[in-house]
Design a protein that fits this description.
This protein has 359 residues and is an alpha/beta fold. 40% of the residues lie in helices and 25% in strands. The chain is globular and about 65 Å long.
Length: 359
């Protein structure tokens, strides 16, 4: 089990100072809109993702008119070991930097992620279900990146090499280096395509076997050469040929017209046998919750420690589905943080939750 035993914020966003000792598996932050509930979840999320829960800029994390440094401290228990983790944002001569510490020693973020991961859902993520394939793909890529740290490296390498290719096409025109570069890009693209499908297969399998009380779904990726994905050599040749064929148009457009963003993606509802795009808002939210819950089961099945953060979880969920949701959460032996405007929204867990009134 993983749990935060105490939390303190100093000059983080709306808080000059905030501290709490925590002794519960379920923590519920209640209060009116704008009172700072989400800021607390966001403070925790930065330990797991450089952009955090709301993709907030670094300079907005430091409270205005403070001394130029925001500090988040958590005392964490994970795998029966205690850690003191610190996240700092420092403004020094208008240069803003962030810093992570574990037991007072400066570490990188990947070290923190190896200790604990945070999985979250916020109201802004509801648009994942209805704003097109690009949003869905980015959402899944973030989930994969948290689960598989090597996927982050693949994405970053792909971006670096792709930018270098465009530079060569438009400036240097070094054909020998271009051929080597395109071969590297093709191999990385294949690894990204394959990793996406492998993750989707794991999540789909969990959805069919674990989510008895919640909505079942299928995640499906699709490329024009989808049937060749399992044949690495043949697939690599197809990718290399497409990239070579596109050299002229890529030079003129100054962008890579074929890349990892050409990977099509869809979410399908098992019950109605239709795309999630055609579901009601409530049904779409149910699918989104199912994906998050399946992701949590994946962590659990692989003995990876995580803590869950749910911001305004009750939006677009009726009372019956809220009960089902809490029932699913009970299956995870880990800590869960919630926010909501009213304590009554959490009646189903009021006898086993620690409530904190904000504002």
């Amino acid at each position: 089990m993983a749990k935060i035993k105490s939390l303190s914020l100093i000059n983080f966003k709306s808080y000059s100072s905030f501290s709490k000792v925590i002794n519960s598996k379920n923590i519920v932050l209640t209060g009116p809109n704008g009172s700072g509930k989400t800021n607390i979840l966001e403070a925790l999320s930065f330990f797991s993702n450089s952009k955090g829960l709301r993709s907030e800029k670094l300079n907005n994390q430091i409270k205005k008119n403070s001394n130029g440094i925001a500090i988040v401290n958590i005392n964490l228990e994970s795998n029966n070991l205690d850690y003191k983790l610190t996240y700092e944002v420092i403004n020094s001569n208008n240069e803003i930097k962030k810093k992570f510490k574990s037991d007072e020693k400066i570490v990188n973020q990947s070290t923190i992620r190896n200790i604990i991961k945070f999985i979250w859902l916020s109201p802004s993520m509801d648009n994942i279900m209805y704003e097109g394939k690009s949003i869905k793909r980015k959402f899944l890529d973030k989930l994969i990146s948290q689960y598989n740290l090597n996927f982050v490296t693949l994405i970053n390498e792909y971006k670096t090499l792709s930018n270098e290719r465009i530079k060569i096409l438009n400036i240097e025109k070094d054909s020998s280096w271009l051929k080597i570069l395109e071969s590297k890009i093709s191999k990385i693209m294949y690894d990204i395509f394959f990793t996406r499908r492998y993750y989707a297969s794991l999540i789909n399998d969990i959805s069919s076997k674990e989510l008895f009380n919640f909505r079942k779904f299928i995640i499906k990726y699709e490329l024009p050469f989808e049937a060749e994905i399992k044949n690495k050599d043949k697939c690599l040749k197809i990718i290399e040929d497409i990239i070579l064929k596109n050299r002229t148009i890529d030079e003129l457009s100054k962008r890579n017209t074929f890349g990892i963003n050409n990977d099509d993606i869809s979410f399908f509802d098992i019950i109605k046998k239709i795309s999630s795009d055609l579901l009601s808002t409530g049904e779409q939210k149910s699918i989104l919750l199912s994906i998050i819950l399946s992701n949590c089961h994946l962590y659990k099945n692989n003995n990876q420690n995580f803590i869950m953060l749910f911001d305004e979880i009750s939006s677009h969920i009726d009372v019956n589905n809220m009960r089902k949701f809490f029932s699913e959460i009970d299956k995870f032996d880990t800590q869960t943080w919630y926010t909501g405007t009213d304590k009554i929204l959490f009646q189903a867990i009021e006898n086993k939750a620690f409530f904190i009134e904000i504002g």
